[in-house]
Amino acid sequence: MNKKGVSWVIIAVVIIAVVVVGGVAYWAMTSTGDGNGGNGGNGGNGGGDVYTAENATSLEFKVSATIGEMEEEYVFMAKNLGTSEVMLRVEQVSGGQEFIYIMNQAEQTVWAAFDGQWMEVSADWSTYWDLWEPALEDYQTQLADWAGTGDWEYNVGGDSFIVYDIVLNPDLEDSLFTHG
Q1: Which residues neighbour 10 within 8 Å (Cβ) at sequence distance 6 or greater?
Q2: In which domain, by residue range, is 84 found?
Q3: Which of 59, 70, 76, 92 has a CB 3.0–4.6 Å from the CB of 99, allowing a cystine?
Q4: What digits encode the pLDDT tens for the residues 51-96?
């Protein structure tokens, strides 16, 4: 081969190497792990996966919301996030009344307590799920930049929200997701 042909081969090899190294570096920086310590390995300080509100498998938090003139309080508890078997419990205080909703995605069941009286409302599964599951996702999205400690406050239009007592991956007992 002449020198000109060798130069092009060397340039091509360098370009391919840069692309491969860049791709691996990008993958390593954006990977959330595989459940076996993907971000940080298994040992040392902070080994294991890095969890956020968006990739946690369970989540618990409280919300104080001012929507227009009305103040509302919520407690959200969810487990099996990221699967098709999400269990969601929402406790709501609105207008001085207390409501609890328990939803099981795998079974498509809903139980609701109004003033302490439980009733099955699974016939309206999609109505409840389509209301509360997107609300949970919206809070998860809002918490994407949460630093991992303290409260998170934000406004949407004229409404204000304070999310507090945030716990990523709490050990939520199955009994929280049953009625009675």
Answers
A1: none
A2: 58-177
A3: 92
A4: 889 999 999 999 999 999 999 999 999 999 999 999 999 999 998 8
